[in-house]
Amino acid sequence: MVVIQSYMTLHFIILLERRKTKVCKELAIVSISNNGLKIAKKILSLIDGDLYCLSKYAKDDCVKFENLSEITERIFKEYKALVYIMATGIVVRSIAKVLNNKFSDPAVIVIDDGGNFVVSLLSGHFGGANELTLRLAKILNATAVITTATDVHNKFAIDVYMKKYGMLVNNYKLLKDFSVSVLNDNSMRIYIDEELEEFEFSRELTERLSKAVFDRFFQEYDLSITFRDYVHSKLILYPKVLHVGLGFTSKVSYEDLLNKINYIFKKNKLSLKSLKTISSIDRKAESESFKHLISYMNKKYLVNAISYRVEDIKPYEDKFPTSDFVRRTVGVGSVARPCAYLSSNKGKELFYEKFEGITVSVFLENPKGESW
User: Fold this and answer.
1) Cα separation, 236 vs 223, whole angstroms
2) What is the average pLDDT across 95-120?
3) CobE/GbiG C-terminal domain spans which residues (predicted)?
4) Which of 65, 202, 341, 356 sits CB 3.0–4.6 Å from 71 for a disulfide?
5) Pick from 127, 148, 174: which is nearest to 12 by CA?
């Protein structure tokens, strides 16, 4: 088995919203004083990153700059996290013109010149600033300052939850409204697909929101956890639990593959936001049509590709109907179904359909095994 592409990282939201054409660096530390330089080097002795210093205090091992606003405008788009060692007011003024939104802005952290306080200033949850703030405070033996309300009141943070489990959302703007409801202890109606009850994310949600009403009989919900497209809910989170296996002839185009997947998902009211992998046998996965399909689906839905060898598939092909023609062509009698079966952790087949030159199998992931 070979994972061809995998972009489901800790910063999946950032990668989805921006930087699609450029690999993003992890960390930049910006210093404007001698003492700030000492603090930065202490951090960089334990964490990998790049160091930017005001020219007046720069050493040979850092990138020099003259204007803070200009260097900020540049590095704001290049890094996942920015650490400024200076006064908070200076940082606020320097980032003001480059701010976009909480789903795409990098984590911004401020450390005072004495190394006493580490402040999570921007993108505390989605960007990971809160997590990095705690780590830096430990390194410097400093006080961490985190002001996000859910953290202050030890409440359930929906954005941290969806990031933890790699979920996509129907509308980012509704996350704020849901968080306000949690903070105010408002009554909430929550829907979880019956097939998802055994997943860890479902158990965590029911434990953390124990006062909410979990049911499947309301006409509308405040939050739904589902892989389907027909649930009436304000906020919908889509866990990555669906796996597609493909078998196809050499004449099939990228458009043909995409259209058939779209057709099956629409016909059966499944959400492509819950699609985690698309898999096939290695010789098919190397085709231009498959590569083009994965490139498109990864950019739009963060879908990963998996390639299986003949020896990976053989032990499981007889679980499904086989074809002598397919066996003569690729070495095994079935491709789509065993590939989806394997990528889903030996899960449950939801739908299978055969078209001219293409077979598509959709499996629901098995929550009890180890992930691929």
Assistant:
1) 6
2) 92
3) 242-362
4) 65
5) 127
Q: What is the CATH number of domain 7-147?
A: 3.40.50.11220
Q: Looking at the chain, how many residues does it have?
A: 372
What angle, rounded to 10 degrees, do the helices at 254-267 and 288-301 form?
A: 50
Q: Which residues contact 207 (CB under 8 A, 6 or more apart)?
A: none
The residue with tokens 């690999």 is: 23
Distance CA(25)–CA(80), nearest Å, equals 6
Instruction: Give the C-alpha separation, 75 to 290, whole Å.
Output: 35
Q: Cα–Cα distance between 21 and 227 in angstroms, integer?
A: 28
Residues 6+ apart with CB under 8 A from 236: 169, 170, 223, 224, 225, 226
51, two tokens:
């160091």
* pLDDT at 14 > cutoff 70: no
Span 79-106, pLDDT tens digits: 999 999 999 999 999 999 999 887 789 9
Q: Which residue has the tokens 């097939």?
A: 195
Q: Which residues contact 108 (CB under 8 A, 6 or more apart)?
A: 81, 82, 84, 91, 95, 121, 122, 123, 127, 129
242-364 CATH, one of 3.30.200.20, 3.30.420.180, 3.40.630.30, 3.90.1150.10 = 3.30.420.180
Give backbone dihedrals phi and psi of 113, rounded to 5 degrees, phi first: -65, -15
Through-space distance between the first and last CA atoms of the chain, rounded to whole angstroms: 9
Given the structure tokens 């998996």, which residue do they identify?
306
CA dihedral 50, 53, 58, 64 (to 10 degrees): 80
